[in-house]
Amino acid sequence: MIQIKSNFKPYAAQHRVLTSILEGKEKYHVLVSSRQVGKSLMALNLLLKWALETPNNYCMLVSPIFSQSKKAFLELAKAAGPDNPLIQSANATDLMMVFKNGSIIRMVSAETEQNLRGVTLTHLVIDEASYVKETLWTEILSAATMIRGKKVLFISTPRAKNWFFELHQRGLSPEYPNWCSYRINSEENPYLNQEELEIARKTLPQAVFLAEYMGVFTESGSSVFGNFSKCSVVSQFPQPEKNEKYYAGLDLALANDFTVLTIFDSKGRIVDIFRENKTSWEQIIQGVQDRIRKWNCQCLVELNSIGSVVYEQLRKSLGSRIKSITTGANKSDLIEALKLAFEEERIALPTEDLAPELHLELSTFTYKILPSGKLSYGAPSGLHDDIVMSLAFAWKCLQDSKTKQVYFYGG
Predict the structure, then answer these.
(1) pLDDT reading at 90 higher than 80
(2) Do residues 360 and 274 share a domain?
(3) SS3 of 13, please?
(4) Can you list the alpha helix ranges (DSSP code H) found in 107-246?
């Protein structure tokens, strides 16, 4: 018999939560976790324990995006080490580890939700659940744990009072005896640099500090666009109107990001969104050209490291409809103008079922305080903000046209 030992030594708060999950009778567990408390390490060790102690278990870790799933798998493989006698195979492409006792640990991205249908799981961890669509759980993964499911764990930092907040409340209610909720905040981690924690406490807006470091649910979390949902009124995308004017913003992909083209009409209504990253640049550029021609719109194109080349190609084929924009120090101005437009309800967004990626990016787009005291805007690590930036460019394109009272048809 092979003796299994772990080097993982949970601190007091981690031990309290892990003991309750492992020994409690509840099937569903909800952990509200602030930053830097070791939640990923807890999740990986739970998965290993479940997989190794009982043969033929099927354990899954769901992360919001692929890069996070890949990172988790590589950490698991590194911890297991090469030539581990307990492992039958480890596939870095499928992010799946098969053990000799028949158990499986699989890492998946919430982006590929259709690929998750039909699986039957014994154990499930949904990491950063606040950043995952609720329907992934309600329509797909809940069914996957219905027959053989033994334990389901939802972990996340709080992000406003969304569906993860509702699950956490369920775990605190005696009306749901099969649910249990917990909270670990940064102050409970004995390994966290307390000086850095105090700096964050003094410099961050209170709502940001409470959500990120104390694990407290606030009305908007640290989201920049906390009130955008009231602008969600477009139930279907329209077709171009002959006498209408249209304005677009193009954010170009870097690395694993998406190229996004967002188009407004003159009333501030989003009429179309083009989003692509899994094809060639030739196909992406052609797709952008087709949308711009379809709507006969003006378009601001960001000049990043690849933007100059794309801009020149679009300018050559579409003429004066294409204008350039350099983000740089202007990013804060672009985002704050967009934020103001939402507050004044001057933008009409498609509903969440029509554009779920747009709503996810707007709800997770956040900010942090730089040492200079200025705000830095962007998506949390591992998430995307391509649609937000495309939206900001398109809004500037619309506002500039109104200010200058110039509109370029054709080219």
Answers:
(1) yes
(2) yes
(3) helix
(4) 134-135, 142-144, 163-172, 194-203, 206-213
Among the residue ranges 60-64, 191-195, 264-268, the one predicted with the least confidence is 191-195
Token reading at 281? 């640049």
Based on the fold, state whether residues 173 and 265 are members of the same structural domain.
Answer: no
Take residue 106 and report the two structure tokens written for it.
Answer: 């699989």
Average pLDDT for 311-339: 85
Q: Whole-angstrom Cα distance, residue 214 to residue 33? A: 8
Cβ–Cβ < 8 Å for 120, 148? yes
Token representation of residue 193: 């640099």
- The confidence band for 78, taking pLDDT boundaries of 50, 70 and 90, is confident
* Nearest-10 crossing angle of helices 356-364, 386-404: 90
pLDDT tens, residue by residue, 94-147:
999 999 999 999 999 988 776 788 889 999 999 989 888 898 999 999 999 999
**Do the Cβ atoms of 390 and 404 come closer than 8 Å?**
no
Pairing of strands 232-234, 349-350: parallel
> What pLDDT, on a 0 to 100 scale, did the predictor assign at position 405?
58
The CATH number of residue 83's host domain is 3.40.50.300
Cα–Cα distance list, 385 to 108, 251, 275, 363 (Å): 21, 10, 12, 10
Burial (CB count within 10 angstroms: exposed 0-12, middle 13-18, buried 19+), residue 369: middle
Residue 120 and residue 253 in one domain: no
CA 9/CA 335 separation, integer angstroms: 43
Mean pLDDT, rounded, of the chain? 85
* Cα 43 to Cα 47: distance, rounded to the nearest angstrom: 6
Burial class (CB in 10 A: 0-12, 13-18, 19+), 103: buried
Is the pLDDT reported for residue 289 higher than 90?
Answer: yes
- Residue 138 has which token pair? 């309600």
Q: Quote the CA–CA distance of 315 and 323 in Å, as a whole number.
A: 8
The radius of gyration computed from the CA coordinates of the chain, to the nearest angstrom, equals 24
